[in-house]
Amino acid sequence: MSTDGLPVADRFEVWREHVLRTVEPVTITCDDPARFTARFSTMVLGPVRISAHTVSGLAGQRTPRLIRRSDPETFQLVLTMRGRATLVQDQRVAELGPSDLTLYHTSRPYRWLAGGHESSDALLMSFPGALLPFARHQVERLTATAFSGRDHIGGLLANALTTLADDRTTYRGPDAVRLGTVLMDLVTALLAHRLDAESVVSPASARRTLLMRIQAYIERDLTNPRLSPAAIAAAHNISIRTLHRLFTTENVTVAAWIRARRLDRCRRDLADPALAGRPVHATAARWGFPDAAGFTRAFRAAYGLNPVDYRAVHGRSNGNFSGPDELSRAAPLRATAPR
């Protein structure tokens, strides 16, 4: 939904009514409706709903009267992507900038200020509290609390949500539910750390979250020639045996995962017109393949062409192929509700 094609005088009111129908009843005000613009998109991942919002400056308030009128009884996790915002709930104030996360509950009054004189971008993740392994009163201790979305579990969650926002794939049925589970694992880990309640997280959720942390670590360290199962296990305070056991769910060994990710980075560079002048052997060495002949064999086995031929065929603006890391880190937005 976008206000771009609407008459200027109608834009704010149309968008306000849209929010009331699709999110929850809330009083929304705008200092300058004549300059108001907004865009809104949503996807459903089982019981989890993700929505992307771009709005110019506005303020919102959910009062006890509006809660009695209609209450979806859900938590809303907010990721601010651009601009600034303020959330007030339960006598706490969260001041948010880009890549900050916060949480609120629709059953309790809140106030929200977004954008100021500039537009802002945010992603909202809506989910029922029953999906969390914590009592509601525990989670409500963290409403209107700012979390960093730049590192650790918060960084994994923010990356997962932004990947969803940028994707154009439609996910339905079991695939959509699985992606919602991935997101809930990350939310659970984020809140458990802040609540000091890791012990209540299910073993399966903890394993999935640890695997995502390890895959993100591998992705960041692909250029390191000393990257190995032993180094990865040591960095995460687990045994090598535990590390290998985690990757059995991916039906691949740790070494094969690293190799596949390095090959994909080489493939992307070879398809990038801006890197057309870089020798193939330099690209291979950058991503952990010091032996040119061995790299050529591995690349041909993975993609059906040798690196030189691949560059000749694909060396244009198509270097955005999604590798296995992107699905594991969470996956994609622009989806429709499962049918």
From TrEMBL:
- Which InterPro entries does the record match to this protein? AraC-bd_2 (IPR035418), AraC_XylS_family_regulators (IPR050204), Homeodomain-like_sf (IPR009057), HTH_AraC (IPR018060)
Q: Does the keyword DNA-binding apply?
A: yes
> What UniProt keywords are attached to this protein's entry?
DNA-binding, Transcription, Transcription regulation
One GO molecular function term of this record is: sequence-specific DNA binding
**Record Pfam families:** AraC_binding_2 (PF14525), HTH_18 (PF12833)
Tell me the domain of life: Bacteria
Show where the HTH araC/xylS-type domain sits: 212-313
Q: Does the keyword Transcription apply?
A: yes
The name on file for this protein is AraC-type DNA-binding protein
- Name the source organism: Nonomuraea maritima
